[in-house]
What does this fold into?
Amino acid sequence: MSPPIGKILPVPSGWPEPPDAAAYHGLAGEIVQAIAPHTEADPVAVLVQLLVACGALIGRGAWFEVDATRHYPAEFVVLVAESSRARRGSAYAHVERLLGEIDPGFSLRVEDGLSSGEGLVWALRDPDGKDAGAPDRRLLVTEPEFARLLSGRKLSSLSPVLREAWDGEDLETLTRNSPLRATEAHLALIAQITATELRHCSTTISIENGLLKRFLFVACRRTQLLPHGGDKNPLAKTGLKDRLAQALDHAGRAGRLRLHPGAEEHWTTSYLPRE
It folds into this structure.
């Protein structure tokens, strides 16, 4: 990781160990390394949001197959911080700018906030009669108040739709005179919550029904102070934006992904969950 340019903040007591350096492997790691010195946000927050947002752009053009099930790059992540001062939004701002420069239509496929299950299906709906449907089946939702979702009445309608979306299933709602349906929907989600809210708002139902099991929870914090700010465009003249554009274009047409020869045994013994 490139050296910071601000005042380093101490690691809070009991804070989780940072990811291994291998987490920053490859092009995504290079991008995070270039951004990290110029933001107060945690590098891991930049990394996971970059990966999730890129997966949203790639869509269903690439997948990994297990048995007869296709797994697409549509991930759900929740950034967990001690407080709102963790600069979670700052991390996403860098990702949003980068992908917006690569794909000017990126912002049109980003929704702020989870309203309801019906609203989510509407945003990804199929054509129906005079309704042309959603122009693009790829969608990235950002939810800055995940606690509001967990503790509110919206969860009852959103939970089944989110679970189906994560599983790659077709989405459907029957609560209207004209039922909505979304086939081949590709949904990615970036949410935020404080550690205190997560402890108090996580219910037995949301855990046992599998909703929260579909989210990757990532601890993030404010890592440095930049009273005078950093470079507003740290990727300029690095060539990283062009390389990412090429990688996303290739990934969108990659089709079925396979492990390297010899890697399958290591994967099955080291990474697949055990009963």
